[in-house]
Write a structure and sequence with these properties.
The chain has 709 residues and is α+β, with helices and mostly antiparallel strands. The protein has 15 helices and 23 strands. 48% of the residues lie in helices and 22% in strands. A hairpin with a 5-residue loop joins strand 22 (689-693) and strand 23 (699-706). Bound molecules: adenosine-5'-diphosphate (ADP).
């Protein structure tokens, strides 16, 4: 059995076998039914034919009997030469023959000689003929009833001979014979569509609707029978009786049989039924065409096949419908499941998005290309103080625009709607519904739908008010810190300051005492010189005080983004006259000109001016060719490093740490506050300042500043 032969194939095979069996059974049933009805019809036909035959025989049966009892007949046998009697008997016979329709009626004496006959006056008259060898005569002369079918010796025409002994007082005088012609019967058979055959006790057909079958036997005739037939001239001079051209096939369950034969060069199947006629010694065979049986079978086969095919088609259709129904149901369930899944996903996504939007601190606002607000999230509503209902559908100017910035807001809004919004966002001041200001950063990006089409603009709005306030606070704090630092330094310098101020004050006191003495003695020249000294010392004291105040209360810093390059070139410009006066060359070297720092331009210039000033003084005693200052700016990591390097004497190692201490100076007119102020400024900018001696001689002061990313 092949592997692919599965249960389905088995079912199909069984169904096919069942269908075939059903078709065959239907065919058989129809055939049997038709056969049965045919057989019944045959039986009726046979009965009718037998009745006809018997009727014919019985119709003439009494004739010889009646003739044998007629006195003239008996008398003629006694006196055969009585011509008048013979004539009377002849007339009697002729009269009987005419009345009954028999073929002939005649009287034979005991020797077999015919004495009188109904056809006495015809050329074929039996009178004078001897029928001694005829079987019916032999039987009758011996006292039995003679019964024989055969050809007439005189006429050559076949007929049924019935003979009756003529008795008188117990003696048999002769034999009265009637001949009946069966030809009219045969003629009626000829007209019937269904052949009828009559055969004798030897099996030889002597009456047939089909002429070809005449004098054929149904089975081989025995030699004794052949001899008997020849001796009695039953069928004339015929000595051979061929077998009927029949192929006989018995049928189970019925008394009939099937004959396969050929008629008019056409093969035929006939259903045949034998009816024995024992009183005549014959067998009557009636037949009928099997065509209708075959047709009934074929019709039944065709109808059943059609019905089975329709049934199969119905089953197939039903199964297909079932299958499609199951598939459709499965598809519908799958679809519903997907829809449910998708709905759940969407609900989850929606819930997630809503939770996200609600929890967002960033305000979201979507606008169509005309600027109409089509979406706001809760954070934006909270930021501006207006509800979503109040904002949706609004076009510029929006209710939260700051009244002082209306023009700027309109411009920024137009820019955003034109797609020209700053990619890094822009700062925007808005007015909360309750009246307070909110500082925001607004970032705008195109709003693109699922098909990739731009539907408007989405802005995220970040509240940076707190950040701004923190920055302001930070700035204040820084200033306060600087101030604290400076105040801390004041403590440090207080004693030094007292000492420093003490000198000019002592000098002032001394010079004042001297001036009073000189004023009393009248030396005006010396007095003037002394007063000059007093003025000079006063200025010095005043300068010390001024510097200290400036240190403690420097101008308020104004921080901005600036390029160090511009600060350096500006400082160079400011110091140019002084540099030239001292014959000093300043070389600028800028590595990174784009880097920006956040700082106070004036303060940073002050730092540079201070450092350059110190360098200039340090090189005062140097030959002119060594009076060079290098001002460089280099990027180191996230910082800018600015260096002022000179070719002066440098700083003794032990003083390297001290130069930044307030009031440390090696100059006779110095205050020693410059470097300390520089350090304070640099540190306020988030950097640090250092000094080192150069290898080729000279000092290098460097400070760092953090760059803006
Ligand atoms: P002042 O200039 O009033 O002395 P500073 O604080 O500016 O105060 O300087 C402190 C001291 O540092 C100076 O007196 C000097 O001795 C030393 N100094 C500053 N710059 C240089 C320099 N470029 N070369 C050598 N020494 C310097």
């Amino acid at each position: 059995m092949p592997i692919w032969f599965n249960a389905r194939h088995w079912r199909a095979l069984i169904a096919a076998a069942g269908a075939l069996m059903l078709i065959a059974a239907a065919g058989n049933w129809a055939e049997r039914r038709e056969l049965q009805s045919k057989t019944d019809a045959l039986r009726q036909a046979a009965a009718a034919h037998a009745l006809g035959l018997r009727g014919l025989v019985e119709k003439h049966d009494f004739l010889p009997h009646a003739a044998a009892r007629h006195p003239d007949v008996q008398e003629l046998l006694r006196t055969p030469h009585d011509a008048a009697l013979r004539a009377r008997v002849n007339d009697y016979f002729t009269d009987l023959q005419t009345t009954t329709g028999a073929a002939a009626l005649y009287l034979v004496d005991r020797a077999g000689l015919t004495l009188a006959a109904s056809n006495w006056n015809l050329p074929s008259s039996f009178v004078g003929q001897s029928y001694r060898r005829r079987p019916y005569f032999e039987d009758a002369v011996q006292g039995r009833r003679g019964f024989f079918y055969g050809l007439g010796l005189t006429t050559g025409q076949s007929g049924l001979f019935i003979a009756e002994p003529v008795r008188s007082q117990g003696a048999i005088l002769g034999v009265a014979v009637v001949k009946i012609s069966l030809e009219p019967l045969q003629a009626t058979w000829m007209h019937s569509a269904d052949p009828v055959v009559l055969r004798d006790s030897h099996g030889i057909v002597f009456l047939s609707a089909v002429p070809d079958w005449l004098f054929h036997s149904i089975q081989p005739v025995s030699a004794a029978d052949l001899q008997w037939v020849a001796e009695h001239g039953q069928y004339g001079s015929r000595e051979r009786f061929d077998l009927l051209p029949w192929s006989v096939e018995p049928r189970r369950g019925t008394s009939g049989f099937v004959v396969h034969t050929a008629m008019r060069e056409r093969n035929m199947d006939l259903l045949a039924l034998d009816t024995p006629l024992p009183e005549l010694g014959w067998t009557l065979t009636v037949t009928t065409d099997m065509k209708e049986v075959v047709q009934a079978r074929q019709v039944a086969l065709a109808l059943t096949a059609l019905a089975v095919a329709l049934l199969l088609l119905g089953v197939l259709y039903w199964r297909l419908r079932e299958k499609r129904f199951v598939e459709q149901r499965a598809a519908r369930i799958e679809l519903e499941r997907r829809v449910e899944e998708r709905t759940r996903d969407l609900q989850e996504a929606h819930a997630f998005r809503k939770a996200m939007e609600d929890s967002l601190l960033v305000g979201m606002r979507a606008r169509d290309p005309d600027g109409k607000i089509i979406y706001v999230n809760p954070a934006l509503c909270a930021m501006v103080g207006y509800s979503a209902e109040e904002l949706l559908g609004r076009r510029p100017p929006y209710p939260y625009w700051h009244p002082d910035d209306l023009e700027k807001q309109a411009r920024e809004s137009d820019d955003a709607l034109q797609g020209r919004a700053a990619p890094h966002g822009f700062e925007s001041r808005i007015r909360h519904k309750d009246g307070h200001d909110v500082i925001t950063m607004v970032y705008t990006a195109p709003l693109v739908d699922a098909q990739g089409v731009r539907r408007g603009w989405m802005s995220s709005v970040v509240d940076i008010t707190a950040q701004k306030q923190a920055e302001a606070r930070q700035r204040d704090q820084e200033l306060r810190l600087q101030r604290s630092a400076r105040l801390a330094s004041v403590g440090e310098m207080a004693s030094t300051l007292a000492h420093e101020l003490n000198q000019p004050l002592m000098a002032l006191s001394n010079f004042a005492v001297a001036a009073r003495a000189l004023a009393t003695c009248g030396s005006s020249d010396m007095l003037a010189g002394t007063l000059d000294e007093i003025v000079g010392q006063s200025k010095r004291a005043s300068e010390i005080v001024k510097r200290v105040r400036a240190f403690i209360n420097p101008q308020r810093a104004h921080y901005e983004s600036l390029r160090m390059q511009s600060v350096m070139t500006h400082a160079e410009t400011l110091l140019k006259p002084e540099l030239q006066r001292h014959g000093v060359a300043l070389r600028l070297s800028l590595e990174d000109t784009t880097a920006q720092v956040r700082g106070d331009r004036i303060l940073l210039e002050q730092v540079l001016a201070n450092l350059i000033h110190n360098a200039l003084h340090a090189m005062h005693d140097q030959p002119r060719h060594r009076r060079n200052i290098e001002l460089t700016c280099r990027r180191i990591g996230q910082d800018l490093r600015v260096t002022v390097a000179d070719q002066g004497p440098g700083i003794p190692g032990e003083q390297l740490e001290q130069v930044f201490v307030p009031f440390f100076t090696t100059k006779h007119d110095g205050l020693g506050l410059g470097l300390n102020i520089c350090r304070t400024i640099v540190e306020a900018h988030g950097g640090c300042i250092t000094v080192e001696n150069r290898t080729g001689g000279g000092a290098a002061f460097s400070f760092t500043l953090p760059t803006i990313p």
